[in-house]
Amino acid sequence: MIAKFDSAADLMAHYAALRVRLRGPEPKPFVHASALPVEDEPTPVVVIAPPMPVPLVRMPVFLMAPHEIRISFEDVASLVCAKTKFHRREIFAPRRTHDICFSRQLLWALARRFCWHMSLPQIGRASGGKDHTTILHGCKRGEKHPDFVELCGVLEDLYEEKRRQNAALIEQAEMEKEGV
To answer: Which CATH class is domain 67-161?
Structure first.
């Protein structure tokens, strides 16, 4: 559900309400006894706010149907960055050195194969505003990268791990329902 707001003030009020719901109300300011004015001489009041405690909130577990389990573009990008030893800024920079371009094309080929929920224009936008035809050409070249097969195996293992974790969460949720 996407909320629509008429003005920036409405949006800020919405965020303030969310902060209160998540963190609780703002703490009341603490006034130290030494900051209170003495009867003879007026002393400025010093207000000290205690640090805001962060409540421990158990995050809800969102179970996914098997067809909703997916590898994110960020997962693929971090894997390619780790393998090629290039920083993410370097891969998405407009530079066209051979190593950087080939790494970028490897990223696109892996994203096209494993980020099946993303279209070519979406991959292009995530890559810094590239055109979908550039992504398509890069995918064909990226499949020829020497690390392509190895990284495909790593991403398949990551997908299986996510699938196993989700299955365990579904099983745990079913057991909790039966116990209740």
So the answer is: mainly alpha
